[in-house]
């Protein structure tokens, strides 16, 4: 087993990628797999040699086909959606399948500046020898352009608008000027950009219209049904538990279904049957947060409850996910517990544990 806490997708799923790479393929320039094989890798199926391919994304296949087709053109791809819709997950696996390297990534923040996007300088070299290519420090974007690979921008809209617009020249001209050296870096075939953006965060900087035109936007929705969301969470929790060496209790799927039921009702503002209107908490209660709740509960069960996953081991993690505003969200959760969960069979443990904590 690797000592790395988390392997990149191209290492975790190396066997599947190798199996998909066999056989006759018509790949776009710079691609490791043909577009059909990329979709199979994301959605699951079988390779030409019969190797089973596990699904990495549970959802509409047409969205993945659109994303893959976009990356085969000269337009960049923007994966848009609320938190927990697997934007980063899809971005990583697309890069792993298409170019075999998902590590060329820039995490965008309010403090990200142009030097982190375009290039930086080794100031010791710069002072000793002046501006030169040896003194230049390439960013993941520059390395992707030079090697013909995909560069990932996580949370693009967290960057300031003026920094975002440094991408316009790269996307339209497929080159990056280096005026200090009176030269430029030209993108090799296969280069493109995958960006993700959260359309619900209060800290978002809107993309300029000029930059928006250079992206094809694919909106990743939340899971339509409870069954689909439960399936996603059970799968991811199993994978993460294995990575963390946490034994998965036998009742994981049952508890996931209960947690998802609570989250979906609070998120939607009504009970599943639509008979009771509810107030929603300030947080998103996304699929990703439900996964975090389950992993936290399994860890607590493993080390402090003899491996038994119970509502008590999950309740404190659920409070952390639901109560973002101590006043407003506590009142919302309390009302939900008294009007809905108190009367529901099979949820007695959650009612008691959550009531004790708020």
UniProtKB/TrEMBL annotation:
InterPro entries: ATPase_dyneun-rel_AAA (IPR011704), CbbQ/NirQ/NorQ/GpvN (IPR050764), P-loop_NTPase (IPR027417). Pfam families: AAA_5. It comes from the Bacteria. Residues 77-215 form the ATPase dynein-related AAA domain. This is AAA family ATPase. It comes from Bradyrhizobium agreste.
């Amino acid at each position: 087993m690797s000592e790395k806490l988390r392997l990149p997708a191209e290492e975790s799923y190396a066997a599947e990628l190798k199996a998909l790479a066999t056989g006759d393929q018509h790949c776009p320039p710079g691609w490791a797999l043909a577009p059909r094989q990329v979709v199979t890798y994301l959605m699951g199926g079988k390779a030409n040699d019969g190797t089973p391919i596990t699904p990495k994304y549970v959802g509409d296949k047409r969205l993945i086909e659109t994303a893959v087709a976009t990356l085969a053109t000269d337009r960049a791809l923007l994966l848009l959606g609320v938190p927990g819709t697997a934007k980063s997950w899809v971005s990583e696996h697309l890069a792993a399948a298409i170019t075999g390297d998902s590590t060329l990534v820039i995490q965008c923040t309010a403090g990200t500046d142009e030097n982190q996007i375009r290039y930086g300088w080794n100031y010791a070299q710069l002072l000793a020898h002046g501006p030169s290519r040896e003194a230049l420090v390439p960013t993941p974007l520059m390395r992707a352009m030079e090697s013909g690979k995909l560069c990932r921008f996580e949370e693009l809209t967290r960057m300031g608008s003026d920094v975002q617009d440094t991408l316009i020249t790269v996307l339209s001209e497929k080159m990056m000027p280096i005026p200090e050296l009176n030269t430029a870096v030209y993108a090799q075939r296969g280069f493109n950009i995958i960006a993700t953006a959260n359309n619900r965060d209060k800290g978002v900087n809107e993309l300029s219209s000029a930059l928006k035109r250079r992206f094809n936007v694919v909106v990743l929705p939340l899971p339509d049904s409870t069954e689909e969301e439960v399936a996603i969470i059970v799968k991811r929790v199993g994978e993460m538990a294995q990575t963390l060496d946490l034994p998965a209790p036998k009742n994981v799927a049952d508890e996931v279904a209960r947690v998802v039921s609570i989250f979906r009702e609070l998120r939607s503002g009504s009970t599943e049957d639509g008979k009771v209107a509810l107030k929603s908490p300030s947080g998103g209660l996304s699929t990703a947060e439900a996964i975090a709740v389950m992993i936290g509960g399994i860890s607590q069960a493993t080390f402090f409850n003899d491996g038994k996953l119970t509502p008590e081991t999950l309740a404190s993690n659920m409070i952390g996910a639901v109560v973002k505003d101590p006043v407003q969200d506590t009142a919302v959760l309390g009302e939900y517990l008294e009007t809905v969960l108190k009367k529901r069979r099979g949820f007695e443990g959650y009612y008691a544990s959550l009531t004790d904590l708020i």
